[in-house]
Design goal:
Helix content is 30%, strand content 18%. The protein is built from eleven helices and 16 strands. Strands 1, 4, 5, 14, 15 and 16 form a six-stranded mixed sheet that branches. The radius of gyration is 19 Å and the shape is globular.
């Protein structure tokens, strides 16, 4: 699916930051020709989450869509594109729901920026939601892999048997609303990552204002001992929770992405600080652009280990106006 003769620029979560994306593409040497951003030798690989939260969601979608259609980019599905599909897809009869993603106040809050920016463009919104079905849930290019949140080899192997190109259909989206189904497991694991319930009924309110009973976990630690060893999110655990030992059952349930596996690039996790590898074969490229962080790319050529000097980014500063 990918041209092995080209080099790639892998870009993290855009979240409607169209102006920031244009600045990053310009810094990477892309130029707008015929209405499409192009590079003579390179191609962009987007890690999903183009929609929601930001000020120019429609513009960002048009930019990414037009690059993909022109063969200048590929884009995989993020959890926010999946959420949008769930929002517009009727639930299975007898499920007790009206839509795959119920229109609750919490869910409305996450998608309301997108819906408001498309309010005067309903045909555009319909076309984009149909286009989301053409975004694969993963890309395995052999020497490197892309997934929005977490690479689960068993689930991906099963998904490939049903959907060889990684692109799902409305039936799959409907099935994902059934708790415990294969479709639900795939969408939660690949697009949202792994998590663990906080102990003793504890909940935490994150920097995004949402209250959760779970925390996001690493899927690569070889020998973690405590909750603090596996937390992977911007919001820290309370000290007493972080020191809590993991029991054998919890350790057994954790995924591990070994260091001898191909390069893996993910988004999703709202990192901060200077962009850098997590491990020699693993990088997260989501650095909270829409929260005035960084929009980050990794310039991938033929290397088999992630080079710390090949991250490129633009800072999003409040003084520059909204991204």
């Amino acid at each position: 699916m990918l041209d092995p003769a080209r080099s790639f620029d892998i870009i993290g979560d855009v979240h409607g930051c169209a102006h920031t994306l244009e600045r990053l593409l310009d810094a990477l040497g892309y130029r707008r020709q015929g209405g499409v951003w192009r590079h003579p030798r390179r191609q962009v690989l987007f890690l999903g989450d183009i929609v929601d939260r930001g000020p120019r969601i429609r513009e960002a979608l048009h930019l990414v869509h037009d690059m993909v259609e022109a063969g200048e980019a590929f884009c995989i599905m993020g959890n926010h594109e999946y959420n949008a599909l769930g929002w517009v897809t009727p639930a299975l009869p007898g499920s007790g729901k009206t839509h795959v993603r119920e229109h609750t106040p919490r869910h409305t809050r996450l998608i309301e920026d997108t819906l408001s920016q498309f309010a005067q463009h309903p045909a555009d919104w319909h076309d984009f939601t149909q286009w989301f079905y053409r975004l694969p849930l993963f890309i395995d290019a052999g020497r490197f892999r892309l997934v929005h949140a977490c690479w689960d080899p068993d689930l991906i192997a099963q998904l490939r048997r049903q959907y060889p190109d990684g692109c799902v259909d409305p039936h799959f989206i409907q099935a994902s609303a059934v708790s415990g189904s294969f479709a639900s497991s795939v969408c939660n694991r690949l697009l949202r990552g792994t998590d663990m319930r906080l102990p003793d009924g504890l909940t935490l309110t994150g920097g995004d204002g949402l209250t959760r009973a779970f925390f996001r976990t690493k899927f690569w630690e070889d020998d973690p001992q405590t909750y603090g060893d596996i937390v992977f999110q911007p919001d820290a655990l309370p000290d007493d929770v972080a020191r809590t030992p993991l029991d054998p059952k919890q350790k057994q349930a954790l995924l591990r992405y070994p260091e001898d596996e191909p390069l893996l690039f993910v988004g999703h996790y709202w990192r901060s600080g200077p962009p850098s590898p997590i491990r020699p074969n693993l990088a997260c490229l989501d650095y909270s652009a829409v929260l005035y962080g960084k929009l980050v790319a990794y310039r991938l050529d033929q290397e088999t280990r992630i080079d710390p000097d090949k991250f490129v980014w633009v800072d999003v500063e409040r003084s520059q106006g909204h991204p």
